[in-house]
């Protein structure tokens, strides 16, 4: 093991940005109990900010029926093209196209913009990636995904009566297949990979072929799962119809860093949720990661302008901060050249309600910080291997990657405290800028519930 890894092993701490993020944490924790309870008249994004009557928990049902009856607007192909082009030029969609109006009245959606964005993202070489200011944050997110996937694959395996029973998984919005090694390690049997960005899917295919060849070459390389690819918009097409076997029953659906794109409109969110749920067998899980709307709204409200961020992150809200719509609450997200495209707030209580409609019961929702706290001991070795944290103080001839003035103050203070007790020491950390970005995310897990049938033939779930 390298010196770096040994040091991380000795003292591992995510000391970053604790003050700021914990402050938000408190607000959100309070809110979670408040917002999920069925308070007539209002639902809160954070405990101190409430949203007027139309966003009551019942508003989702009203919204749903309103949406169904709204006439389709004639958004022309030329309009779509203009949108795509303006995003490619990094300019914002004009504000007079109000997000909510658009989502309620138009067939136009941003999915093509998102697809174009991901298709144009370059595959950066390892060299290039190591130079990135956010390499450790990306690794940290990868670690979170690994731990989450492993947690639910373990539950699935434990629940199977038969040893070596097949495990079938759908990686929804799989991107370039960054999670393929996790599926291999999890020893699954079959994987479905779907994504709207066809170029990304091509990368994913290449990666799989490469892994499979290596697996065949190496003795003891383990079993390689079978794989099928589905290109397409999972908010709009019924993915099951594209499966090699549409009657296939899945054990796990994973949607990492992507469900929020569907919250552009209710029909899209429903389409995506149906795709996530309908092939899961009872007891199967739907897991994922996505931005935490509470964090975004809270930070945006604290800022004097419509933007907040730091040297690596810029979030610009394009929705009414005092009255965010349930769907179509658009913001622009820029992260050190990794993502720069429109995203949508996911109002979590609405997400839970939508999931319930499709037979999915919430098992756990955790902010990244909480997830880390729960998993850090179990995942210590993996964190070291994945270089999920940066060593502080850095080794000889190593430059810290963060470049904001206060990026390592938290680490410095932490090390000083440790040194008082145990002499010279090193810790693993993220820069404050990275942690400001990372603490915007949460993990979620739902379990598929067994259904009974109503007299009219619709499924009925006891959730
Ligand atoms: C941030 S990337 C995450 C990729 C992968 N899940 C990961 O964790 O590395 C988001 C992915 O969602 C895909 N995506 C966004 N909207 C989609 C939609 N409506 N249908 C299918 N894929 C979509 C994008 O093309 C992109 O590959």
From TrEMBL:
Region (Disordered) location: 22-55
E.C. code: 2.1.1.56
UniProt KW Transmembrane keyword: no
Top class in the EC scheme: transferase
UniProt domain MRNA cap 0 methyltransferase: residue ranges: 132-449
Keywords attached to this entry: Methyltransferase, mRNA capping, mRNA processing, Nucleus, RNA-binding, S-adenosyl-L-methionine, Transferase
Reactions catalysed: a 5'-end (5'-triphosphoguanosine)-ribonucleoside in mRNA + S-adenosyl-L-methionine = a 5'-end (N(7)-methyl 5'-triphosphoguanosine)-ribonucleoside in mRNA + S-adenosyl-L-homocysteine
Binding site for S-adenosyl-L-methionine: 145, 173, 195, 233, 256, 261
Subcellular location per the Swiss-Prot or TrEMBL entry: Nucleus
Broad class of where this protein is predominantly found: nucleus
Compositional bias of kind Polar residues: 36-53
MF terms in GO: mRNA 5'-cap (guanine-N7-)-methyltransferase activity; RNA binding
GO cellular component, one term: nucleus
Biased composition (Acidic residues): 23-35
Superkingdom per UniProt: Eukaryota
Family label: Belongs to the class I-like SAM-binding methyltransferase superfamily. mRNA cap 0 methyltransferase family.
UniProt protein name: mRNA cap guanine-N(7) methyltransferase
Species, as recorded: Rhynchophorus ferrugineus (Red palm weevil)
